[in-house]
Design a protein that fits this description.
CATH architecture: 3-Layer(aba) Sandwich
Shape: globular
Helix content: 25-40%
Strand content: 15-25%
Distance between the termini: 31 Å
Largest sheet: 6 strands, mixed
Radius of gyration: 17 Å
CATH topology: Rossmann fold
Strand order of the largest sheet: 3-2-4-1-5-6
Number of helices: 7
CATH superfamily: Phosphoglycerate mutase-like
Structural class: alpha/beta
Length: about 230
Amino acid sequence: MSGLGEGRPVASGSIDGSGYGRLILVRHGESEGNEARQFSVSPDIGLTERGAEQARVAGRRIAAEFRPGAIVASSFRRARLTAELIAAEVGYVGPVEVEPDLRERSIGELAGAPYDAMHRHPTYRHDRFWEWRPEGGESLEDVAQRAGLVLERIALAHPARDVVVVSHGGTMLALCAHVERGWLRPRVARNCEVVVVRHAPGRGFELLADATRAATVPAASRAADADADDATG
């Protein structure tokens, strides 16, 4: 490591000197809801110990490859905590900017239910999953509409900088759909998975396929480490 995690400010700008800006999309670390494998009931739930370590690992990886000039997070506590842990690892000393429209999808009547309740819902369609809206909640298309505007705004404000953007499983799925102009990803991001989006004025967004990875921290149980296509939170 080059000392980026020692509390010193990091020079802004793209580390590769390409002139492109890069948005480093990160799902928050494992939350208490993720550990229980149920849809979260509150924006105030925190990270598990494993989730905090995932955030630190992600921060060290980001420090090795990027020079964040800004860090932005969802207003939900688990995302803000993840962003703060990443900031400490990369040596970013500025404020974490909070964007409420990066919040997780509202799951409506399924709040507190196990993840598989979505697939078992009588109105759910796996082949059109992005359109499905639970009673009292949002569809992924709804999330893409609000969160996509945030991504556009961040790119406009930071045209040639690296910016860390910490959000949620459903939100990252929606952001990738916004970037790729279609629902092409087969699953939500794992906890602290990183997806890199490159952008430049007049060139739009490009998702870098070779820059997708997750922070691997051993799980306490096989169930906690299992992939779940709809495990958002």
